[in-house]
Amino acid sequence: MSFRATLFTFALAALASGALPSLAQNVSLGTAANFGVLAGSAVTNTGPTVITGNVGVFPGTSITGFPPGSIFPGSGFLHSADSIAQQAQSDLTTAYNDAATRVCGTPIAGGLLGGRTLTPGVYCMGAGDLTGTLTLDGAGVYIFQMASSLTTASASSVILLNGASACGVWWQVTSSATLGTASAMAGNILALTSITLNTSATLSGRTLARNGAVTLDSNTVTACSGGPVPAVPPPVPVPVIAGAAPIPTLSEWAMILLAGLMVIAAYGAMRRRKA
Amino acid sequence: MARFVALFAVMLTALFAAELTPHGQSAVVLPWTEALVRICAGLATLFDSHVEAVGRILSSTANGFAISIEAGCNGLEAAIVLIAAMLAFPAPVKHRAIGIVAGLCAVQALNVVRVISLFYLGQWSAAAFEWAHLYVWQALIMLDALVVWLLWIRMLPRSPSTPAPVLSSESGVTGRAMAP
Which residues from chain B sit within 8 angstroms of residue A251, using beta carbons? Predict the structure, then answer.
């Protein structure tokens, strides 16, 4: 085997084994990419939260706190247990399973993320804890697999350098994620249970909870777009068809009643005209 | 009286059949519905800059709430019942024309108020939206059509010299009446 062929074989093997994580495919969100916030049981907001993207819940129905919370103009709608949110939840499950089954490249001891500078790859840990700053350096896919929870401390942050994109960062959380007060997070959070954003926490990415609630408090969630191939599309505002239920101006019975009343009135009028 | 009832039934059948045909839907119902949404959005934006209309959907950019004005929500059915009654009732053509135009205006004006009120009611409370949509506004639209009908009957000459024949082309009448 020539040197060139040997090199090519090694490169292929490296790609297949995930040893070149920067070339790994991005996670695909499907229609869940249209949502800035998606929950399984409820979305609860306090304060002037601003979401870029749709806000939805399925199979739960409760979305409260909008207003004072709002959706950035033209970026989305509220979807309470409708078919749009249902499909997004289905696509979220696919994305979650994809992120969860990627081969772990680097275990993070103790799940301590603060103060580290990481390059693209798949990182796994038990419970994730971010205190201080986590720097993600370089373009590519970053997947953080939490066997349990993810917690960020107050004022903690994720910094993206040298082409790293929020849409290439994935937080696969097997239980719940909590972002501390005034923390600045980047990436798409895919949680099996719930997600809580404490006061004034900001997120460049998405909060997508499969089974539990998303709780917000005066936050800014900006659904990112772009990132590694396949790029995450920008959120498309999918309108709610609130009046689509068959509740017409007049129901069939109301029209029959109206016609009957008109006939009675006409009968009276004709009698008066004859008299 | 029997003649009126029979003609009323025929007119209702003909007008609703015309409304349900593909041509009736594409030429009248859908453009009418989209015009209604644009009118509602135009009026709402006079006092609320967060309102936008896309096709048959009226939405708020402030909180994402949206309503869809479907074919049955445009007030045409109530207008058709009123128009059918006016065509069936013995009256001069001039009075019929005035009655149809006035009836259309009355029903559609109230429907615009209905849509705008429901749009804001829905943003405030889903339960109130459903209740108003199902009960309050149906009753008010019926009352509106009935009042127009009673006023129109009262305004008719007591004994028309020559009762005009019923117009043979109901679709044509509908088209003229809807033109404004």
Answer: 138
